[in-house]
Amino acid sequence: RSLDHLVVPRVLGFLLNVPSRVSLGALALPLRRPHWLCVRPFGAAFYNLDSKLATPTRIGAEPQLREFLRSALAPAPSELLLVVTRDVEEAGSWLRAE
């Protein structure tokens, strides 16, 4: 489904499984393997909590989050899992009708 239909305020966090380059020290290999990262809001901004980063990185508000997600999910194969409360999941209210 399109990210445009996502009701971001109803989502507690985002788990992304994206292809990641494999490296041995300074040597980057021409291989990719799946890598998990987390994005979640703190206050009015979203942060990338990727373990490969030295510190959490500020993404910005909802428009910047949507662009970050589009970019991160572009390389195939990629997956996006949403972290929502049980009532949001049961009602399906994390997704706007098309």
Structure in a nutshell:
This protein has helices at 62-73, 86-91, and strands spanning 13-24, 27-42, 45-48, 57-60, 79-83. With 98 residues, it is an alpha+beta fold.
How would you describe this protein?
The chain has a five-stranded antiparallel beta sheet, with helices on one face. Helix content is about 20%, strand content about 40%. The chain is globular and about 45 Å long. The protein has one domain: Dna Ligase, domain 1 (2-Layer Sandwich). The model has no long low-confidence stretch (mean pLDDT about 90). The chain is of the alpha+beta class. The chain contains two helices and five strands.
What kind of sheet is the major sheet? Answer: 5 strands, antiparallel
Reported by name, the CATH topology is Dna Ligase, domain 1
User: Cα distance, first to last residue?
Assistant: 10 Å
Structural class determined from secondary elements? alpha+beta
The multimeric state of the shown protein is single chain
Order of helices and strands: EEEEHEH
CATH architecture descriptor: 2-Layer Sandwich
Q: Could you tell me the mean pLDDT? A: 91
Give the C-alpha Rg.
Answer: 15 Å
The first-level CATH class is given as Alpha Beta
